[in-house]
Design a protein that fits this description.
Blueprint lengths: L3 H14 L2 H10 L6 E4 L3 E8 L10 H34 L2 E8 L2 E4 L13 H12 L6 H15 L1 H20 L4
Parallel strand pairs: 2-3
Antiparallel strand pairs: 1-2, 3-4
């Protein structure tokens, strides 16, 4: 489990290391200031919020979506070298891969990410669920079907998962204050 303190250390490092212009855009466009940083055992994901596109009233949703996609693409290309340099430093410091995303308005584009294998043993009833999703065209493979199921649980059980993470963080804090084993 990644402790709250470890999350804060990683986020703090990125807040201090990112170029000022990236932090300024995020501070103006997002709640709070700086990037959104998520950490797990394999990966650090950094989501930067940049200014939304300025389009006239009456612009269609399709045109707005494409304008946002263009702004995200331009940011990705314009910042590639600096992002690679920062990612290498962070990967060396935190021993995790770094993935980048950008948020423009209501659109978030993930540039890179780690697809970590998750070994699991499923009994036939669980495999049948995955096979049904594959056969119905919801997923291309059992692995995609399992990822789809995890996303669905995450969407519908967000509050419960958040409460569970908070409880685990509290347990980790209590353990850290106890006697050394």
């Amino acid at each position: 489990m990644i402790t709250h303190e470890a999350q804060e250390r990683v986020r703090g490092w990125f807040v201090g290391r990112l170029p000022e212009e990236w932090r300024g855009e995020a501070a103006a466009g997002a709640e709070g200031s700086g990037p959104e940083v998520t950490v797990d055992r394999e990966e650090i994901t950094v989501v930067l919020t940049i200014g939304d596109v300025d389009l006239p009233d009456g612009t269609s949703d399709a045109e707005r979506a494409e304008a946002r996609a263009g702004r995200a693409k331009a940011f990705r290309e314009d910042t590639r070298g600096r992002r690679i340099e920062i990612a290498r430093e962070a990967e060396h410091r935190f021993d995790r891969k770094v993935s980048w995303a950008v948020r423009v308005g209501d659109r978030t584009e993930l540039f890179t990410h780690v697809a970590a294998p998750a070994m699991t043993r499923l009994r036939q009833p669980e495999r049948l669920v995955l096979d049904t999703l594959v056969d119905a065209g919801v997923a291309r493979s059992r692995a995609d079907a399992l990822a789809w199921c995890v996303k669905l649980v995450g969407q519908h059980e967000g509050d419960w998962l958040s409460e569970l993470r908070d409880a685990m963080a509290h347990v980790a804090d209590v353990r850290s204050k106890g006697p050394a084993a």
